[in-house]
Specification:
Shape: globular
Largest sheet: 8 strands, mixed
Amino acid sequence: MANVKKNNDIQQKLFDEIRMNFHSKNSLVYNIADVLNISTDSAYKRMNGTIALNIEETHLLCKYFRVSFDSLIDVGNSGAYEFQAYDISKSVKDYGHAFALLHYLKRIKNSVESNMIISATSIPVYYLMEQKELLFFKLYVWFRGVYEYNGNLNDFINEFDSPEITDCYQQIVDHYKHIPSSEIWKEETVDTFLKVINYHLKVNSFSDMEQPLLLCSQILSVLDKLQIWAKAGKKDESDTTFQFYLCEMDPEQDIHLIIHPDAVSCNIKLFTMNNLKITDRELCDEAERWMSRMMQCSVLLSGSAEGERIKFFDAQKEKVKLLMKQIKVKKKVAQSIVK
């Protein structure tokens, strides 16, 4: 009986994961039936546990819906890790990466005792999502770097943008605002994004100089928001705790550590939007200890450290304004050549 219950638990977990990752307009049961080449009635019975999946059916579903079999059988507790890659090389309108993040944050938000710790070597993607051009530039860099996209930023936005994806990203931002978080930044966190803008200026990724200027102005808006959150110690008008740390040490990696009552996960950013998701308890505990140590070695800019907070944000904004001045000079030079 114990084995039967365990198998049912695994099957239920599989379908729970599938439901979270499913974002087609078609009914899920029809997709299940198509993948397994069975009737919809048989698909329903597998989904509610009346009929057990065999190993071949489990393999087909895991492969089609991009569910890690290791995670179903708790291999994550024995040192195995899951690499989450979102291949949009065939279609720029594959929204898998966005919907996967949305469902992930929903689970965290719905757990009352959950919280998030972020070490930021670059600006966390949640802040880019409220600024449309910043977000699409981030996606453009990913698509161009990994999949050798040859168009410019305008081409990419025109091809990728849609009400559906914009709404999804806005929901991600809304969920993030309701998750208590601690963030560990360094003096160079903003520099990473500015260097990427500067590089794409050199390789003519922008159709005109107004685009990089707009990106810079949006980064200034992000910094303004962060400064308000840091001063209040909470996100927007909510009571969601926000702790902002400035670390003199280099965090070395963009790491998002999610802590909630049932489990922990450690997500390490790879290749702009892809990530290495680790659920191994021992490694996550080690990551939590390391990040706690980083916070102890940092200056907490939330709350009372007004002088340090103003100094940090003023310095970051000056870097952005300096790049804007350089762009305006290049714009004038380009205009004089045309004349």
